[in-house]
Design goal:
- The structure is a single chain.
- This protein has one domain: Gcn5-related N-acetyltransferase (GNAT) (Aminopeptidase, 3-Layer(aba) Sandwich), CATH 3.40.630.30.
- 32% of the residues lie in helices and 26% in strands.
- A five-stranded mixed β-sheet has the order 1-2-3-4-5, sandwiched between helices.
- The termini are far apart.
């Protein structure tokens, strides 16, 4: 049975899960150090969710909640399911809990982005009721000189 819980403490289990899962999410992102993990967990604007099965972490999702002048914005980031557990509903369990927490936190909508090549993830998000928006997503690289 898949169980989704909010990560409350930076411990060896979470560190090991991040070390295993982050490379499956991104080949260029570094694995967070203990201090970064502790800051993430302590932040009022983010919730780290872990999906567990048989006692081990098999998936992670970060929910970002930010208060802005027009209300509370919710965003799902860094969803990753262990390649050995894909296709078993782990992403759906994580996403549903994130949506529940976003509503509980006062958000009216939840945003996310997903690369077109992530077909299974995109099908999941559409099945959950996410709708594609007609928008441009811009990114500024801070390391790039102005």
């Amino acid at each position: 049975m898949i169980e989704v819980r909010r990560v409350e403490h930076a411990d060896v289990e979470v560190e090991e899960a991040l070390a295993r899962l982050i490379p499956q999410l991104s080949s260029t992102s570094p694995i967070p150090r203990r201090q970064e993990l502790e800051a993430l967990i302590a932040s009022d604007s983010s919730v780290l969710l872990a999906a567990k099965e048989d006692g081990g972490i098999i998936g992670l999702l970060t929910l970002v909640l930010v208060r802005i002048p027009t209300g509370v914005r919710a965003r799902i980031e860094d969803v990753v399911v262990d390649e050995r557990a894909r296709g078993r509903g782990v992403g759906e369990h994580l996403s549903r809990e994130a949506i529940r927490l976003a509503a509980e936190g006062g958000a009216k909508t939840v945003d996310l982005t997903s690369r077109p090549g992530r077909r299974a993830a995109n099908r999941l998000y559409e099945r959950l009721g996410f709708e594609r928006r007609d928008t441009h997503v811009y990114r500024y690289n801070i390391e790039q000189p102005i």
